Amino acid sequence: MSQATAERPPAPVPKRLSSSSLQKAVGDCRACDLWEGATQAVMGEGAVGATVMLVGEQPGDREDREGHPFVGPAGRVLGRALEEAGIGREDAYITNVVKHFRYKVRGKRRIHQRPDRWQVTACMPWLNAELEMIKPAAVVLLGATAAQALLGSGVRIGRDRGKPMDSSLAELVTVTAHPSSILRAEDDEQRSLAMNELIADLSAVASWLSDRGG
């Protein structure tokens, strides 16, 4: 941890956890520097007691402007994949490891920039609070940033996707590709293949929940 990071105040996570208390408190977080360029912090959304928690990397441009997770193009991909897999949005809590949008400006556009490790670490108390509040039966980590933040740097999406991972986060913890990777596919054939793989990974989670009775 850098000296600059160590000198920053800790995340002001409230003792009494609720969606409203977390949303209110995260706006005051200065544990890293990403709040300076972001429009707002974006907490997760979904029912308390949701059976599945899906964890991505960070809000994108549209999420940052609207204040809700996965409402942009990647969110549409995720919504379709959940529907195809048979997981209702009402059964899912959707969030990100990092709560502020990190970007670089290119012309009039704000281009996604992957958060640094220390920024991910600074934001982890918020995700831990969400896990404690929701207590999901299954946790699905979308992409390398989320997977490595919670399971360690040795996780590889291509090798580990769809497999149950050894973790105390939930009864079932698994990893898959981030929906945004599908949008970056080279052509329609690759995009279709990647989408089918995401649906298959989420379908396996749905089957596990069904067998569990959730």
Task: Provide structural commentary.
The protein is an alpha/beta fold and 214 residues long. It has helices spanning 3-6, 19-26, 61-66, 73-85, 117-134, 144-151, 157-160, 179-183, 188-212; strands at 45-46, 52-56, 92-96, 103-106, 109-112, 138-142, 172-176. It has one domain: Uracil-DNA Glycosylase, subunit E (3-Layer(aba) Sandwich), CATH 3.40.470. The chain contains nine helices and seven strands; from the N terminus they run ααββααβββαβααβαα. It has a five-stranded mixed sheet with strand order 1-3-2-6-7, with helices on both faces. A hairpin with a 2-residue loop joins strand 4 and strand 5 (109-112). Helix 4 packs across helix 9 (188-212). It starts with a helix and ends with a helix. The model has no long low-confidence stretch (mean pLDDT 95).
